Structure formats: C-alpha cells, structure tokens
Amino acid sequence: MRKKPTILSSRTVARSRLFHVEEVELEFSNGVNTRYERLVGSSRGAVLIVPVMDDGNVLLIREYAAGTHRYELALPKGRIEAGEDLLAAANREIMEEVGYGARELIHLTSLTIAPGYLSHTTHVVLARDLRPQRLDGDEPEDIEVVPWPLDRIEALSAQEDFTEARSIAALYLARERLAR
Amino acid sequence: MRKKPTILSSRTVARSRLFHVEEVELEFSNGVNTRYERLVGSSRGAVLIVPVMDDGNVLLIREYAAGTHRYELALPKGRIEAGEDLLAAANREIMEEVGYGARELIHLTSLTIAPGYLSHTTHVVLARDLRPQRLDGDEPEDIEVVPWPLDRIEALSAQEDFTEARSIAALYLARERLAR
After folding, report:
1. Residue B163 to residue A29, Cβ atoms within 8 A
2. Is the residue at A50 inside a domain?
C-alpha cells in the first residue's frame, strides 16, 4: 500500500448551518504539492436500512428530496444521533419512516458516497423480523411506503425516480447476504 | 404522484472555489413551510465508467481520496467538461485513468448520491472493446489500475478500501446488463 499524502495545513473556507468546507494542502509521497477542498461531515455518519418483511418484500419510501427537487424512491435512512448506537439508530429510523421495528438487525457494510470530496460514511443495516411499531419523525409531510419484492430489484432500475446509488448498492448486497 | 413543494425563495448562504450552498424556503402541498440547505452542483454532472476487458476483467483504480484521507478502490470517474458529450467524457476519462479507449460505450443509467442535499448526477457508462490508448490526466501521482473479474464482485465487498456506493451499484447493474 502506498504511503498516504501528508496534510501540511487545513483551513475552513466556507461554512453554513449544515455544511463545512475545508481546504487542505497536501504533499504526496512523490513530492507533488496540491490543494483540495472537501466537506467535513459528522463523524457519526448515517444509517441506511434494508427492511425485509417475512413475505420477501423490502420496504422502500418515496420522499421529497430538496437537492434534486423531485420525489425520490429509496431505502429509509437518517443520521445517527449523539450517543446512539448504529443499530439503535437504524431501528429508530424505520419506526419513524416505515412504521416497523425489527427484532433482527445486521450491520452489512459501510459505504462512502464521494470519497474524493466528502468524509461521510453510511452504515448499511439489514432489518428483519419486523413488527408494526411507529415513532413520530420530523418529516414535513407523510412518507409514502412502497413494498417491493427483493427478488425483482432488477426492475427497479427502470423506475425513473429510483436513482440513489447507496440504495441500489444496499439492495444488491442484502440480496446476496440473504441468498447465502 | 404528489404535487412537488413550491420553492418560495432561495439564497446563497456559503460559497467556496468548489462548493455553493443554497438555502431554499419551501411550501409543501399540505401547507407546511420549511427551509433546507442544499449544494448546487454542475448541471453537466459526472461520468462513472465500467471498463470491461475481453477476458471479463473490469478495470478498477486505487487513488487517494481527500474526503476520507485514504486510498480508495473504485471505478474510474470524472466530470463532464463544457461542450462534451457524456460518452466522449467517459472515453476520455478511461484513457486518462486506466490507459484504454473503448470502441463500444453504452449509457446504462444515471445515479444520484445524496438527493436530499445534492443535485449532482453521475452517468454510468459501460465501456467494452477496449484498446490501449493513453491520455495525460491531471492527477498528482500515478493511478494504480486493478483488474478484477466481473463474476467475482461479491468478493469486492470484503476489500476494506472498496466502499464507494456508486461503484458498487454500477458493477451490479453492468453485470446484469451483460448477462442479458
């Protein structure tokens, strides 16, 4: 494995309520110096949950996304709160977003979304043995829950509003895990 | 399909060389008003390429990622330049990053990475019929090219440095397309 570049300096170049942009000055092991901008994320990260019902349906949600200004179909997800365990966060999020709690929660893997620019990590959790259990979330409107057969995820790519890379990756990884 | 929220106002709240943060004020169809911050991206977006050799190996790259401050294994990718067609951008990126050009380029799908916060779109391109052809890129150090059998992508998840959601999603989608 190559030696990582050395961070010579870093400074904040922009900041808003949610975002923190940092410029880092790096020296690569070959002597090349360069500057990069990156977004500094929460060190706790987020959870993305694959909630699978006993009948083989996975519960997707359709929700307004401000970044693309569209309704997007995706897996439920959310931030891990301070002091919260990642499996507890996953269970809370599905209670808030799809109205179920899980008796079995398995951390499958952890994903990055744009590692060149973001430190953000998303932990993928498989949730099974689901029971109806609702917690109030902070969503501005009701979330539409869309059950989808896990053995038909190929057909999801044809859905125009199903585009989120983490959800696609997580569904394939969950299907593989369940097939073992 | 539900009626999209109305954007009542938007304003820039932070800006750096690379990033532009906007705050939008929205009214949902149920009358609820709320504010969101989002990153405004390039309208051209990026390309992520699945370069498949005649022998069934896909060409991955291992490259330093400033966001996570690690070397990351992923598919080659890059921004679409002004006036550039997405397939031409895909072909240029693989010439720069893996040293091959493709005689067959197929746009498989377009992915989002965090639609709640980013407008960014990544177009996934399958590249086949590859021939050695190198273009100089602007990387600070040589990129390591890692051939990997497309029929063994399950094993990639066990690689600690293979975490990028778009690359995982694109590999499964490409394998499905090639199996048809």
Report:
1. no
2. yes
